[in-house]
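Entry 0007
Protein: Rod shape-determining protein MreD
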Amino acid sequence: MTDRKKLLRYFAYTIEIIVIYLLNETPGLIPPVFGARPVLLLPVAVSIAVFESETAAIGFGLFCGILLDFGMSGGASIGFHTLLLCILCYCAALMAIHLLRASLLSALLLSTVAVALILLLQWLFYYVFSGYEYPGFALVSHFLPRFVYTLLSVPLIYAFNRAFALNIRESAG
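Output (structure tokens):
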């Protein structure tokens, strides 16, 4: 019975990731704020990692990372987001299991670290190291609004995944 619940949860997470990806990539659906659009798959991956095992967290981080690699960069840097999200989701799951309780505060903290790290590395590799003329301007005008806009979605995504994870675990028990 537990395997069926786990498979149902994983299937639902997969559907959630695909729907969020499609919503995020549909032009004009999510309005830009200060010219930036959120990266909703980052808090989704971290939020799932908070409720699942390390292995499942790596798997969903891998899936979200692949979608981000194809969506954000047009396939130009395959593996960048995939590798980062696998590592970050693994660490988030370990921390949620051994150090933190699964709560909105811990999900917000872990999402803040993950989003900040990924966006900072994007900025470094795509603007600073590639010789962009005004990397500071890109950081303030593009990456900072994207960071804030992405973090605004964390409570809603966490609440959805929390309710979902707890309902499936309790429904068959």
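Curator remark: The chain has seven helices and no strands. Residues 2-30+37-171 form one domain.
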